[in-house]
């Protein structure tokens, strides 16, 4: 039995790592396709004679597509399975990349970006769920965070690619995305279905077979399957998400999704070159400094992937968010006092880097992980659709209003406003976000049902117990 378990441990970990790696390619495409437009747009403006409105429409089409894609993917994944839904997203990535790379008109560009958005939205909704439902509780955090790591690596790759190909064709910038899309599509064809989706659809022996492939032993797999069956329920309608017992999960996950955007990370990422140029750096230097921001995001996400399973999800958020508040307060001060050039420019760079690390290493790490963990199996797909929809809706709002905020309030007050939102995020996590480290998805569902899910609910339960 000892040798058999040792073999099972090796193959189980190897398979879950392979599943997480192939699935996370969807995150790589997510990051690359959203980030590359910032470099490609410089050439697109000239070739297609885009005015400001045209550039905004071409840029925003991908966000609108993502919003539609994530809301539709939940029902599709519940019906045909997580794996097949990821394959559909991969096919859309391929189609969108081919169309955008060969576009001869603005209309085709917009349609292609919309298709890529559908793929990104579907991937952001379903890939974290698929990884979470296959992973063991003790490794679920770092494996799901691998998706976010792939996203920030894709963003950084787009910054580097845009800089290196700044004198080449924009078609090549977009076309590079075909390779990871093909890897995702072919790789998913060889991966197993989610055991929890199989069990939910009555395919118990198929679920057992998958669990035995990805767990340390057959006994561990069988115990987990019994727990899944014990909590087994039919697919629930959208209205289930509004029921009081599910509401704490909705509050925690959607709250993190909204705050991930409203705390300003994408605003800083989108406009980092502009921020650095205003601080006194030349255009090329500003672009290179933006690459440094992307590298900082990668390292912060790697750290977060370690911390979510070592410190815990909630603890990570509470330890990192105060650093983001301080960094934004400093950034706002440098702009309010017009400290550009010389030492002021380097303080600005340090503040942007610090904010990026503290925010990316906390909220950006937690958004897809917490969303994939907290919902009951019967409405997990639909719940994650709302998480992804909240993320993309807030992203669209932030991308459309950041420059207006800077013009209306000034850069200093804008960054102070973001600092205040980060402080609010700390309070929100303290009150509404539970610790999910090391707990099975079924344990978290039981906490929802017995009313001890959110920290505030558990505090009330303890007070009532002492009173009795």
Automatic annotation (TrEMBL):
InterPro entries: MFS_dom, MFS_sugar_transport-like, MFS_trans_sf, Myo-inositol_Transporter, Sugar/inositol_transpt, Sugar_transporter_CS. NCBIfam families: SP (TIGR00879). Belongs to the major facilitator superfamily. Sugar transporter (TC 2.A.1.1) family. The chain crosses the membrane at residues 12-32, 52-74, 86-104, 110-131, 143-164, 170-191, 249-273, 285-308, 320-339, 345-371, 392-409, 415-433. It comes from the Bacteria. One of its GO terms (molecular function) is transmembrane transporter activity. SUPFAM superfamilies: MFS general substrate transporter. Residues 19-437 form the Major facilitator superfamily (MFS) profile domain. Keywords: Cell membrane, Membrane, Sugar transport, Transmembrane, Transmembrane helix, Transport. It is found in: Cell membrane. PANTHER family: PROTON MYO-INOSITOL COTRANSPORTER. It is a multi-pass membrane protein. This is MFS sugar transporter. One of its GO terms (cellular component) is plasma membrane. The keyword Transport applies. The keyword Cell wall biogenesis/degradation does not apply.
């Amino acid at each position: 039995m000892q040798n058999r378990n040792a073999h099972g441990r090796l193959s189980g970990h190897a398979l879950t790592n392979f599943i997480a790696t192939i699935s996370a390619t969807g995150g790589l495409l997510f990051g690359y396709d959203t980030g590359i437009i910032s470099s490609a747009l410089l050439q697109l403006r000239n070739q297609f004679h885009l005015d400001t409105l045209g550039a905004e429409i071409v840029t925003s089409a991908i966000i609108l597509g993502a919003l539609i894609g994530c809301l539709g993917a939940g029902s599709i994944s519940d019906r045909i399975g997580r794996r097949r839904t990821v394959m559909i997203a991969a096919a859309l990535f391929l189609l969108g990349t081919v169309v955008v790379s060969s576009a001869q008109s603005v209309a085709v560009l917009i349609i292609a970006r919309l298709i890529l958005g559908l793929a990104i939205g579907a991937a952001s909704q379903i890939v974290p769920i698929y990884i979470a439902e296959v992973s063991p509780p003790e490794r679920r955090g770092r494996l799901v965070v691998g998706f976010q790591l792939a996203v920030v690596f894709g963003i950084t790759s787009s910054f580097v690619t845009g800089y290196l190909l700044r004198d080449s064709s924009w078609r090549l910038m977009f076309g590079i995305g075909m390779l990871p899309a093909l890897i995702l599509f072919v790789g998913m064809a060889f991966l197993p279905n989610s055991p929890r989706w199989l069990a939910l659809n009555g395919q118990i022996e198929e679920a057992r077979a998958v669990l035995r492939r990805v767990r340390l032993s057959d006994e561990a797999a069988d115990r987990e399957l019994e727990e899944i069956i014990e909590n087994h329920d039919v697919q629930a309608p959208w209205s289930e998400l509004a029921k009081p017992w599910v509401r704490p999960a909705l509050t925690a996950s959607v709250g993190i999704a909204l705050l991930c955007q409203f705390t300003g990370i994408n605003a800083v990422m989108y406009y980092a070159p502009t921020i650095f140029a205003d601080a006194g750096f030349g255009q090329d230097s500003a672009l290179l400094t933006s690459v440094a921001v992307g590298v900082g995001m990668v390292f912060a996400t790697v750290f977060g992937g370690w911390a979510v399973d070592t410190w815990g999800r909630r603890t990570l958020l509470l330890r990192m968010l105060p650093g983001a508040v301080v960094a934004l307060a400093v950034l706002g001060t440098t702009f309010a006092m017009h400290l550009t050039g010389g030492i002021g420019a380097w303080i600005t760079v340090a503040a942007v880097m610090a904010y990026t690390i503290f925010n990316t290493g906390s909220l950006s790490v937690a958004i897809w992980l917490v969303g994939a963990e907290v919902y009951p199996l019967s409405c997990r797909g639909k719940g994650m659709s709302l998480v992804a929809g909240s993320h993309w809706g807030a992203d669209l709002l932030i991308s459309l209003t950041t420059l207006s905020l800077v013009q209306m309030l000034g850069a200093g007050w804008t960054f102070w406003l973001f600092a205040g939102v980060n402080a609010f995020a700390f309070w929100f996590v303290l009150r509404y976000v539970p610790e999910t480290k090391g707990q099975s998805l079924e344990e978290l569902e039981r906490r929802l049902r017995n009313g001890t899910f959110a920290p505030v609910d558990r505090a009330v339960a303890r007070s009532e117990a002492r009173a009795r």
